[in-house]
Specification:
With 184 residues, this protein is an all-alpha fold. It has two domains: 1-45, Arc Repressor Mutant, subunit A (Orthogonal Bundle), CATH 1.10.10; 60-170. 69% of the residues lie in helices and 0% in strands. The protein contains nine helices and no strands. Helix 2 packs across helix 3 and helix 6 packs across helix 8. It is globular, with a radius of gyration of 18 Å.
Length: 184
Amino acid sequence: MGRAGDELLDRVMAVVARQGLGDRSLRDVAAQAGTSHRMLLYHFGSRAGLVAALVARMEADQVRLLRGLASGAESPQQLIRGLWDELTRPEVLPFVRLFLETVALTSRGPGDDLTAPWVEATAGLAARWGVEADPASTRLGVAVVRGLLVDVLGGGSIEDATDALERYLTSLPVVPLQRSGTKR
């Protein structure tokens, strides 16, 4: 996708984060984003293509956030807490809701794994930190965070979900992270 498509996707994301996507027509979404449904079709091919682009963008944004937070984290628990704090900010929750909504609207097939980017990102971080990567633990952690976000968006309190996250984090082994260039 080119620059025009990226800019259009930004506008669509802002609209659907505020108003939801649900079964809204492309014409409605396009009008709210200040474009035409034909431009959405040109850039994304179909409604399903638009939904897939929204999911991919949000997932990439969250993985970038993880990598940015990793530079200051002293442990996996601290990294997860930092990610949780960012994802539960009031101005970010509409995008989390949009991510979960679009995932629900997108049919996924074999090999279309939304958790794979997280597994890859944490494997890279683990190598940089001199610790062993554990894909199953990464998948579990992603599932816990996503499940707690569903709880928050479904009316549960952030405080209660944060308490549950803390219980999960205390069950993990404490692994101090080494920084690049340091010996263990």
